[in-house]
Amino acid sequence: RCHGSGTPSASYGCHCGRSKARACELRLPHGTVATPVFMPVGTQGTMKGVTAAQLDGLGCRICLGNTYHLGTRPVSLIQKAGGCIGLLNVNREYHSQDSGGFQMVSLLALSEVTEEGVRFHSPYDGAEILLSPEKSVEIQNALGSDIMMQLDDVVSSTLTGSRVEEAMHRSIRWLDRCISANRRPDQQNLFAIIQGGLDPVLRSKCLEEMTKRDVPGFAIGGLSGGESKEQFWKMVTLSTDHLPREKPRYLMGVGYATDLVVCVALGCDMFDCVFPTRTARFGSALVPTGNLQLKKKQFAKDFRPIDEACMCPTCQRHTRAFLHVLLHSNNTAALHHVTVHNIAYQLRLMDAIRTSIVEHRFPDFVRDFMKTMYGDVGRCPGWAVEALQSVGIPLS
Ligand SMILES: [Zn+2]
């Protein structure tokens, strides 16, 4: 079954006959991105530890920019540099997406949220900055990213009570202000961000209201912030049940391999997370069985690559023993090599997921993945078993 629509970011594709998984193509102004897709997170126009050219070489076609960091630089300079794509100095096939209010949670200690917007102090010069919905869209319009995110009122996912409800309603009002402020709706796709915390009533209300707006895509926000996995997957599946089938669904802040596989089964198309790059900085390399802590003694004389099946530049050139030595000498090249591999791992995982959906064998892929990751499906986390069962993929 295939779907099509005329909106700039229209997606169409194949559905897993069993679960809610889908393989789509996201048509963006600068090209097409196959989904499900993992988007690495960048700051200051480049990836921490990896250049844009290297990302491109790994087959990465979409990554996150960062409004807050880029936005505190003069917007006119960014415009002169040709928008975000020019700033990244990569070819036009490369897409960027800006994270709007995404990192407000990490800023909450220093910020103040009012109906006007989010007020905070610039880490560059201490100046007070008001990030309003209009300002956030203006910055993203100047950056020229293919996808931009509404400014939302983010509260901690473990918070309960009236503040969660207030943030949900305010996010709807801010969505309307962002839609009105978008000067380039034909070239830049504004995504709404579903809020509502862990309360099914609030989240349903937010879904009902936001899906009335004709936005090109929807993000599921306010999760992955310390809530239980049971609460997490139930909010994800509730959201995908109510989101329009013909528009992309972006689950924010999710990047663990098991979570990616389960949330694709629950019907999500796009993901982002700092995890693969952050964990690389601790010498942790991602592999199909979990991870390798390369600083451990057991790797000192291990002359295999991180993953023999991986085609990334790190695995083609370096051994676990070499990386072990580099990590122990605090060589920053080691962090770079592991980061490159971890991004390659995420991209390859998403490719494998997508191929299995297209070939109508996604349920088998999920079972094989869990078997490899946990040794035995009996050791697979209970929440994942339950979530997969709910969409018709029993593990045993
Ligand atoms: Zn590799």
TrEMBL record:
Active-site residues, as the UniProt record annotates them: 98, 272
UniProt keyword Zinc present: yes
Enzyme class, spelled out: transferase
Pfam family, one: TGT
Gene3D superfamilies per UniProt: Queuine tRNA-ribosyltransferase-like
Secretion signal span: none
Binding site residues for substrate: 98-102, 152, 195, 222
Keyword terms of this UniProt record: Cytoplasm, Glycosyltransferase, Membrane, Metal-binding, Mitochondrion, Mitochondrion outer membrane, Transferase, tRNA processing, Zinc
GO terms of molecular function: metal ion binding; tRNA-guanosine(34) queuine transglycosylase activity
Catalytic activity: guanosine(34) in tRNA + queuine = queuosine(34) in tRNA + guanine
Binding site for Zn(2+): 310, 312, 315, 341
Membrane topology: Peripheral membrane protein
Domain tRNA-guanine(15) transglycosylase-like as annotated: residue spans: 19-373
GO CC annotation: cytosol; mitochondrial outer membrane
UniProt-listed Enzyme Commission number(s): 2.4.2.64
UniProt-listed SUPFAM superfamilies: tRNA-guanine transglycosylase (SSF51713)
Subunit structure: Heterodimer of a catalytic subunit QTRT1 and an accessory subunit QTRT2.
Family in the record: Belongs to the queuine tRNA-ribosyltransferase family.
Official protein name in the record: Queuine tRNA-ribosyltransferase catalytic subunit 1
Classification of source organism: Eukaryota, Metazoa, Chordata, Craniata, Vertebrata
Gene: QTRT1
